[in-house]
């Protein structure tokens, strides 16, 4: 299995384990490759706040989910240590949001850094996130 | 608090309790006063990730609900500009999480808040955030 095939196998395994969570949040995995993941969500009526725009927590969940998949795409499990989320535009009910995450630094140690950008259907940036990820020495797919 | 203020606070709280995502999760608004809010949430199976730990997005969401309530507690519409969260301990199934948001500074339209999410039983810290908001001119209720 090469790195690209391994990333796809990791994505399949993660989606299986995260099925209920992804249904709750309405997140769909679009693409996974070594150090990268693309995830999509449509702003449903249960994902909005009283202003009828996507909840900040949902935008964070989407970004964190995308970051997690990008960070685990090389078949090493882990968890977010910290994340800095910046909201740039509101996302009203019905918007389709795409979160693209990429690993920005991986020096082979325990931690790595990543960034995520969330855009709407017009390509407008809705939110940006940077984060630090902590690896756990545990494989996701046993190879 | 005068009766008039009390009524206003109740109207603001009633408005915020309509939050669809908060209700969908089952989050409970425990307390709201000027610049402060406390929420609780029981961790359900669908909140867990494939590791069996509470998904960071759900922990963030609970803190964000408290942040929104504290930020909007004066009745002026406030929107989040940025939130920095540190996850310090994994959350687990069945746990009752408590989130508290407290105003640190409110200067013109910009507010700075501290948010903590802890285990409701042991009081152990699960996540800590610092967040900024922008207060608009509009009010939540007439």
Written overview of the protein:
The complex is a heterodimer of chains A (143) and B (142). By secondary structure, chain A is an alpha+beta fold. Chain A has one domain: Thiol Ester Dehydrase, Chain A (Roll). Chain A contains three helices and six strands. Chain A has a six-stranded antiparallel sheet. In chain A, a hairpin with a 5-residue loop joins strand 5 and strand 6. Chain A is globular. The termini of chain A are close together. Chain B is α+β, with helices and mostly antiparallel strands. Chain B has one domain: Thiol Ester Dehydrase, Chain A (Roll). Helix content of chain B is 25%, strand content 44%. Chain B contains three helices and six strands. The model of chain B has no long low-confidence stretch (mean pLDDT 92). Chains A and B meet through helix 1, helix 2, helix 3 and strand 3 of A and helix 2, helix 3 and strand 3 of B.
Features of the shown structure:
heterodimer; A: 143 residues; alpha+beta; Thiol Ester Dehydrase, Chain A; 6 strands; 38% strand; globular; B: 142 residues; 3 helices
Q: Kindly report how far apart the N and C termini of chain B lie.
A: 19 Å
* Mean pLDDT figure of chain B: 92
The CATH architecture of chain A comes to: Roll
Q: Helix/strand/pairing class of chain A, anyone?
A: alpha+beta
Number of helices of chain A: 3
- Under CATH at level 1, the class of chain A stands as Alpha Beta
Alpha-carbon Rg of chain A, integer? 15 Å
- The helix fraction of chain A, in percent, is 25-40%
- CATH level-two architecture of chain B: Roll
Task: Give a topology summary.
The complex is a heterodimer of chains A (143) and B (142).
Chain A: H1 3-17, H2 19-25, E1 27-33, E2 36-42, H3 56-72, E3 78-87, E4 96-106, E5 111-119, E6 125-135
Antiparallel strand pairs in A: 1-2, 2-4, 3-6, 4-5, 5-6
Chain B: H1 3-16, H2 20-25, E1 28-33, E2 36-42, H3 56-71, E3 76-87, E4 96-107, E5 110-119, E6 125-139
Antiparallel strand pairs in B: 1-2, 2-4, 3-6, 4-5, 5-6
């Amino acid at each position: 299995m090469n790195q690209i095939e391994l990333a796809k196998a990791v994505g399949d395994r993660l989606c299986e384990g995260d099925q209920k969570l992804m249904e709750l949040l309405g997140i769909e995995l679009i693409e996974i490759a070594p150090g990268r993941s693309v995830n999509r969500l449509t702003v449903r009526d249960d994902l909005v706040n009283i202003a009828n725009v996507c909840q900040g927590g949902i935008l964070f969940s989407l970004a964190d989910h995308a970051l997690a998949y990008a960070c685990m795409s090389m078949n090493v499990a882990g968890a977010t240590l910290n994340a800095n989320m910046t909201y740039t535009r509101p996302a009203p009910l019905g918007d389709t949001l795409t979160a693209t995450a990429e690993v920005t630094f991986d020096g082979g140690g325990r931690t790595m850094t990543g960034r995520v950008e969330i855009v709407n259907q017009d390509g407008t940036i809705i939110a940006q996130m940077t984060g630090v990820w902590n690896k756990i020495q545990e494989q996701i797919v046993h190879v | 608090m005068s009766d008039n203020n009390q009524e206003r606070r109740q109207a603001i709280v009633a408005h915020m309790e309509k939050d669809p995502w908060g209700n969908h999760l089952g989050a409970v608004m425990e307390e709201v006063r000027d610049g402060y809010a406390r929420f609780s949430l029981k961790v359900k199976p669908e909140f867990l990730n494939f590791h069996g730990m509470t998904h960071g997005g759900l922990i963030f969401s609970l803190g964000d609900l408290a942040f929104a309530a504290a930020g909007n507690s004066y009745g002026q519409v406030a929107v989040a500009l940025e939130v920095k969260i540190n996850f310090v301990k994994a959350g687990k199934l069945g746990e009752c999480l408590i989130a508290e948001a407290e105003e640190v500074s409110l200067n013109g339209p910009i507010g700075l808040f501290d948010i903590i999410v802890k285990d409701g039983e042991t009081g152990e810290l699960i996540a800590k955030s610092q967040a900024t908001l922008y207060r608009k001119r509009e009010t939540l209720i007439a």
